[in-house]
Design brief:
The complex is a heterodimer.
Chain A (H helix, E strand, L loop, with lengths): L5 H14 L5 H9 L1 H18 L12 H45 L1
Helix pairs in contact in A: 1-3, 2-3
Chain B lengths: L2 H4 L8 H9 L3 H23 L2 H17 L10 H22 L18 H20 L2 H12 L4 H8 L3 H22 L1
Helix pairs in contact in B: 2-3, 3-4, 3-5, 4-5, 5-8, 6-9, 7-9, 8-9
Classes of the chains: A mainly alpha, B mainly alpha.
Chain lengths: 110, 190
């Protein structure tokens, strides 16, 4: 069997190290014997661990944010109310139109 | 506020009750949800965008979208998870708008490094952390987003894909490329 080279397994080694996955057999065999790939895997794991702690501090929102959000929800309610009114009006017009058509149909059949 | 919760202060309601009340249109309940979540939403926005002013706009936008979309929240995920997804979406929209209007000078957020207790680790840990923060700042917005969501917030690939409107495969590819770039930036910095 042709031995696997570092370049061929490098993407899989990086992905498995970052995601905490097991490697497929032949790749695992190669890594077990290759210090460079082991070092690469360790580097990736260290980077992912550091990334998890990269931003330990929470940010403080600016003052007035809550007020601005609640003002925005009033606007949102207003615009939603407008849509509902328009839809109700259209439905009423459509219903009136159906009634007219039915009346005419009744008149012409009689 | 409706009579159902008038006897109870909103501060005493648990999240499930607050969400239910807000869905019924109770603004005080939603205001309490805003108070409880605005810091987390704002923090996520700052980390994604690297700009506090833009992050404040995105936070406001995300919370208003949440108010509008409460009817579609089914409670399958935690409310915070649902809110974070809206925030990622809002951040993405804001970045697209900013690019269109050529608001090119998005400043990098400078954070003070937290104290490291273990003396022996201090040097290496601080150095790597600083290098990592600088490297993250050099990533493209798309690359930084996936790394932050996966490695900082611990989202799974499906959650990332859904938030960004891409396939799971595309999310994995984007993440892999981002990590490769990050590794290269770190090596170049040494």
């Amino acid at each position: 069997m042709t031995p696997i080279g570092c370049a061929a397994v490098r993407p899989a080694v990086r992905w498995a190290a970052a995601e905490g996955l097991d490697l497929p057999g032949p790749v695992e065999t190669h890594v077990g014997q290759c210090v460079r790939c082991q070092a690469e895997a360790a580097r990736v794991r260290r980077t992912v661990r550091q990334a998890a702690d990269l931003y330990p501090e929470a940010e403080t929102p600016p003052a007035g944010l809550e007020g601005a959000v609640m003002a925005g929800t009033l606007e949102a309610q207003g615009s939603q109310g407008g849509w509902i009114k328009t839809a109700t009006l259209l439905a009423a017009v459509a219903a009136f139109g159906v009634v007219l058509v039915l009346r005419r149909a009744r008149v012409s059949s009689s | 506020m409706s009579n159902r919760h008038s006897a109870q202060r909103v501060e005493d309601l648990d999240e499930r009750e607050l969400v239910a009340a807000a869905r019924d249109g109770e603004r005080q309940a939603f205001a309490e949800l805003v108070r409880r979540h605005q810091q987390d939403v704002y923090t996520l926005a700052v980390r994604l965008l690297g700009n506090r002013e833009l992050a404040a706009d995105v936070t406001q936008d995300a919370l208003i979208r949440a108010w509008r979309g409460l009817g579609s929240f089914r409670g399958e995920a935690a409310f915070s998870t649902w809110l974070y997804r809206i925030t990622v979406n809002a951040a993405w929209s804001a970045r697209r708008r900013a690019r269109r209007h050529h608001a090119a000078d998005i400043e990098q957020v400078e954070h003070e490094l937290p104290a490291v207790d273990h003396v022996e680790e201090a040097g290496e840990s601080l150095g790597l952390r600083q290098a990592l923060r600088e490297a993250m700042g050099e990533l493209s917005p798309g690359a930084r987003t996936v790394v932050i969501l996966k490695d900082v917030y611990g989202w799974n690939h499906a959650e990332i894909a859904e938030s960004l409107g891409i396939s799971v495969t595309a999310a994995k590819v984007r993440l892999h490329r981002a990590r490769v770039t990050l590794q290269r930036l770190l090596e170049d910095a040494r």
